[in-house]
Each structure stands twice: as structure tokens, then as C-alpha cells.
Amino acid sequence: MFVSVDPAICAGSGCCERVCPEVFSVGEVATVIDPAPHERIHERVREAAHECPTAAILIRSDSD
To answer: What is the model's pTM?
Structure first.
């Protein structure tokens, strides 16, 4: 899994950081602090992406 955030559409709501602070940090917009998170937190990364109000979180599989 590889994670990124599109800063052009991120609203900086902080949902992602609340769900998975190991991967996301939010200032004005979210940034990814661990773009290749450990498998044990993949489900929380997916939850953060689902909760994002602007769908700014992008997730790619290892095979992409």
C-alpha cells in the first residue's frame, strides 16, 4: 500500500489524522508522514480515506 494526499482538494478537516495519526498529519492540509504504512494499519488507512470529506486520500496497491 502506498498513500498520498491531493493537497489541491484537501480541506484540512483532520479526519484522517484522528483515525490514523501514524500516517497522516494535518496543518492547513493533510500530509502523509508514512507513505508505505505497515500492513497492520492498512484497515485504518482505508477508514481514513473513507472518512475524508473531499476524497483527497489516494491509496495505491503495492502492485500499481
So the answer is: 0.92
Of 9, 50, 55, the C-alpha closest to 29 is 9
Could you give the CA distance from residue 53 to residue 62 in angstroms, rounded to a whole number? 25
Q: What is the pLDDT of residues 30-53, one digit of tens each?
A: 999 999 999 999 999 999 999 999
Mean pLDDT, all residues of the chain: 96
Please enumerate in sequence order all residues whose Cβ is within 8 A of that of 24, keeping only pairs 6 or more positions apart, or say none.
5, 16, 17, 30, 31, 32, 33, 48, 57
> Which of 42, 49, 46 lies closest to 15, judged by CA?
49
Q: Are 45 and 17 in contact (CB under 8 A)?
A: no
